[in-house]
Design goal:
By secondary structure, this protein is α/β, with parallel strands linked by helices. It has helices at 17-27, 52-67, 101-114, 178-184, 186-198; strands spanning 9-12, 33-36, 71-79, 121-131, 137-148, 164-166. It has one domain: Maf protein (Alpha-Beta Complex). Strand 1 (9-12), helix 1 (17-27) and strand 2 (33-36) form a beta-alpha-beta unit. The mean pLDDT is 94.
């Protein structure tokens, strides 16, 4: 049985403004105030895990212990089977210290071209970890499958959204209305499980 969240304030253990906005949108129907780790001046821990789950749990635990509040962390990324699962847990690192996702998308496209493959399938993974200051943690994973397109399309979303077309659609996440993306994204799938279990 998952532990229920009963507090009023939740730390979102992220320094990515787009991610914080998206999680706040998903939390909006609950009487929960979400505050970002950045607004509390919490350090960004080094992501030393080898899986999305390990990194999400590491970030949630650190933020919860540092703030004394429950903390929600997410680790997510783009997985490209033709690239052996890359960029995967290194999705943000492919964008470099400047967080230049245009360069990261170009890097992915160049790698797919170099792999000389017809396989342009890809999927986004999101693992959400909710940690309490006493060390208790709950973890949930969501995925959304689709394919890569080039050139990038759309100015909405963030990260790799402009090159990802989800299954059953002809527009990228970067072209979709934010609410439409929220309803079906990898983060939404993980969030639905979190809500069912903990809220």
């Amino acid at each position: 049985m998952a532990r229920k969240f009963t507090g009023e304030t939740l730390v979102v253990a992220s320094h990515n403004p787009g991610k914080v906005v998206e999680i706040n949108d998903l939390l909006s129907r609950f009487s929960v105030e979400a505050v970002s780790a950045a607004s509390l001046d919490l350090d960004e821990p080094e992501e030393t895990g080898t899986t999305f789950a390990e990194n999400a749990e590491l970030k949630a635990r650190e933020a919860s212990m540092a703030s004394g509040l429950p903390a929600l962390a997410d680790d997510s990324g783009l997985v490209v089977p033709a690239l052996g699962g890359q960029p995967g847990i290194y999705s943000a690192r492919w964008a470099g210290p400047e967080k230049d996702f245009r360069a990261a998308m170009e890097k992915v496209e160049a790698a797919v071209q170099a792999a000389n493959t017809e396989d342009r399938s890809a999927y986004f993974v999101c693992v959400l970890a909710l940690a309490w200051p006493d060390g208790h943690i709950e973890t949930f994973e969501g995925r959304v499958h689709g394919s890569l397109v080039w050139p990038p399309r759309g100015e909405r979303g963030f990260g790799y959204d402009p090159v990802f077309v989800p299954e059953g659609f002809d527009m990228t996440f970067g072209e979709m209305e934010p609410q439409r993306k929220h309803d079906m994204s990898h983060r939404a799938h993980a969030f639905a499980q979190l809500v069912d279990a903990c809220f």
